[in-house]
Amino acid sequence: MSVQPVLLSYDDLPPGSDIRREYHGELVKITVPAGEPPAAAKRVIAQAALVSGAISSWAFLLLALIVFGYFVRMNRIAGGPLNWAIAFFAIFCTAIVALVSWVRYGMKLEDLQAGRRQATVIAVTPRRLVVETSGPFDVASYDIPEEQLVGVSIGRAGVRDADGRLRKLDRLVIQLAGGRRIPLLPGRDRTELRWVARAIGRAMGVSVDV
Fold it and tell me: Distance between CA atoms of 203 and 136, rounded to whole angstroms?
């Protein structure tokens, strides 16, 4: 039987996913190439940065509101000047949230770009899991027999790159006998990670926690 590489279905992966799979008998080969984050992934982190920026700014904005109210009362501002003051205060608050959100977006995007530079190839059979990975987080090969594989899960935690920088990214976690855990595919979309985890779980008959 010839090997047939195909794109993973958009039914179970987000738009723009570049992960590919190949079938050859019992073998399933999953290729996760290095590359830039797709636009959809950038939109997700932009939305998360905006929410995070608004939440983290509330204390400062509350203090600013108290000071603003005190200033208005002390100076007995009313009528047109009050409307202008409220408008400028609203612009000020919006600018603060936008600034904090932009900084958080830059940090999240940098982490995501680092994760996407990790290239990984996974070969799965009912009896063995073979992994080759290379990039800023790890350069390693793993050959894991079925009796050593305990389960597969998805987690979000700090992962150090080659420069020792701690980056918070979603990743696939291979759980081995003895408590050892191997993190893979940092920065990939959770939908992608779920598909890979389930593919390994189905092929090798191990538990999957996604």
Answer: 29
- Spatial neighbors of 20 by CB under 8 A, at least 6 apart, are 5, 6, 7, 8, 30, 31, 33
Angle, vertex CA 176, rays to CA 170 and CA 178, nearest 5 = 125
Coil, strand or helix at 50? helix
**Complete DSSP assignment for 80-137:** HHHHHHHHHHHHHHHHHHHHHHHHHHHHHHHHHHHHHT-EEEEEEETTEEEEEEESSS
Separate counts of helices (H) and strands (E) for the chain: 4, 10
Place of tokens 């980056």: 167
- Count the neighbouring beta carbons within 10 Å of the beta carbon of residue 159: 23
pLDDT digits (tens, 9 = 90+) for 5-45: 444 443 466 666 788 888 888 889 999 998 888 887 788 88
Question: Rounded to whole angstroms, how far apart are CA atoms 21 and 33?
Answer: 11
pLDDT recorded at residue 13: 62
Q: Over the stretch 122-172, which tens digit does the pLDDT of each residue have?
A: 999 999 999 999 998 889 999 999 999 999 999 887 777 777 788 888 899
Handedness of CA 58, 60, 61, 63 (dihedral sign): positive
CB count within 10 Å of CB 55 equals 11
